[in-house]
Amino acid sequence: MARKQGSHSDITGPKVREAALRLIARHGYAAVSMRQLAAEVGVQAGALYNYTPDKQALLFDMMRDHLVDVIESFDRADPKTDAQSRLRAFVSFHIRYHLPRADAVFVAYMELRNLSPENFAAIEKLRRAYEDRLEAILRQGEAEGAFAMKDARITTRAIIGMLTGFFTWYRQEGRLPLEEVEAIYWDLVCKAVAR
């Protein structure tokens, strides 16, 4: 297959990543071949190597970029005030940031097993950095006397797990609007840290 007219790295590169994300989210990393990905993008399989060294690097890059953007976006959204306000901002941010990125969320959490050990360590470090932001909020709440919990680290992971689970079932056309579902999740988080 000849190179498509108008095909450029700034156009094709993002198409490769979008197609990879979509295919991996639907079929799983192990089931998606570079040949299948090339067909989805409309290029020859060998042309993919102009955009990524291999499938492992592509998976790692997608996960890393997602997590870096999550962290940077939350840092901009964090009101950096009292713990209660910061926790509310975290809950809202996590839901609203991830909702339109369901494929990225799925890949970032479900495909960890397919990373090489060194890539796994790098992604775990980024995941921990995001978790650390929530844990710091919870510890601030303890210091302010607003929150009580037996273990802030476990509570952090439980809250993130609950919030991330939202994306497996929520549908915009469902019986409750997003604002109501978000309010219910906020109530659940409040109960998890209540004094």
What does this entry show, briefly?
By secondary structure, the chain is mostly helical. The protein has 2 domains: 1-52, Homeodomain-like (Arc Repressor Mutant, subunit A, Orthogonal Bundle); 54-193, Tetracycline Repressor, domain 2.
Furnish the topology, listing elements before pairings:
Layout: H1 9-27, H2 34-41, H3 55-77, H4 83-98, H5 102-110, H6 117-144, H7 152-169, H8 178-193
How would you characterize the overall build of this protein?
This protein is mainly α and about 200 residues long. The chain folds into two domains: about 1-50, Arc Repressor Mutant, subunit A (Orthogonal Bundle), CATH 1.10.10.60; about 55-195, Orthogonal Bundle (Tetracycline Repressor, domain 2). Helix content is about 70%, strand content about 0%. It has eight helices and no strands. The chain has helices at about 10-25, 35-40, 55-75, 85-100, 100-110, 115-145, 150-170, 180-195. The chain is elongated and about 60 Å long. The model is unreliable at about 1-5 (pLDDT under 50).
CATH architectural grouping of the largest domain: Orthogonal Bundle
- Helical amount: over 70%
Mean pLDDT: 93
- Tell me, what is the CATH class of the largest domain? Mainly Alpha
